[in-house]
Write a structure and sequence with these properties.
The protein is mostly helical and 250 residues long. It has helices at residues 6-9, 19-27, 32-45, 57-64, 68-80, 99-122, 129-137, 148-165, 169-186, 193-211, 215-249; strands spanning 54-55, 84-87, 91-94. It contains 11 helices and 3 strands, in the order H-H-H-E-H-H-E-E-H-H-H-H-H-H. Helix 6 (99-122) crosses helix 8.
Length: 250
């Protein structure tokens, strides 16, 4: 049986209506290449494009309603990030999920965040940077955000803010790059209500420990939090891939 080609069979949907595109546009005007990039990456993240799927620049350009130039620019960016491969005379294909690569990126992320939290706990001055985080993560249960995509964005902001608050812009730059590269799998951690509730609880305890300058407890909580998320994301990714493949073969 021939595997379907999602680039041809996926329902036509203007790129401007996609959630990832709307979010990017809200921050600043997106170029066509950025819009296409967000749309394709969203297809990969939501398992509309699966590892091994093949497509051409022309097929994507027709489906997204743009010329081939921004499509090509977006595809080469995704190739540099390790998500796609280009095949001579046979178009593009989605790469298998490289779990070893994600593991390495999670290791780097953990090292950076633990060092940032140690530095925050060692500071003598007040930690105003925590105020905004506490306003979201220390809410009573009845007032919490239960939208998975929204929580995923806030979770990312939580970890980015901790590193930025440590005061080393180069550390923050590297951490932001790692965050971008693992976003495609990390956001799966918020597809289940249990994981949302757990994240609220764990973030709250981490913030409380930092406020009290309890470095050992804060870093221990953060390390356990990242490890649990890493394991859950891997499990959910494998499950999503299995479900998507089973559905595509029908």
């Amino acid at each position: 049986m021939t595997r379907r080609n999602p680039a041809k069979s996926a329902p036509a949907k203007p790129a401007s209506t996609r959630p990832a595109v709307r979010k990017r546009a809200a921050a600043q005007p997106a170029t066509r290449a950025q819009t296409v990039y967000a749309a394709i990456k969203d297809d990969i993240a939501d398992f509309r494009l699966l590892p091994g799927d093949r497509f051409t620049e022309t097929e994507l350009a027709d489906r997204l309603g743009v010329s081939r130039t921004p499509v090509r620019e977006a595809l080469y960016q995704l190739q540099r990030e390790g998500f796609l491969s280009v095949q001579f005379r046979s178009g593009w294909s989605v790469n298998p999920y490289d779990f070893d690569r994600f593991e390495n990126l999670y290791d780097l992320r953990q090292l950076l965040e633990l060092e940032a939290v140690r530095r925050l706990c060692d500071r003598k001055e007040s930690l105003e940077a925590l105020d905004v985080l506490e306003a979201y993560w220390l809410l009573p249960e009845a007032e919490r955000d239960n939208d998975g995509r929204s929580v995923a964005r806030q979770d990312e902001a939580f970890h980015l803010s901790l590193v930025e608050a440590a005061g080393n812009p180069e550390m923050a730059r590297v951490h932001a790059d790692v965050t971008e590269r693992i976003r495609i799998v990390r956001r799966l951690d918020f597809t289940q209500q249990e994981r949302i509730d757990t994240t609220y609880a764990e973030h709250a305890e981490i913030l409380k420990a930092i406020r009290r300058r309890r470095s050992e407890r804060a870093t221990s909580l953060l390390a356990a939090h990242i490890e649990a998320s890493r394991a859950e994301v891997r499990k959910i990714t494998l499950h999503k891939l299995f479900e998507a493949r089973r559905g595509s073969w029908g």
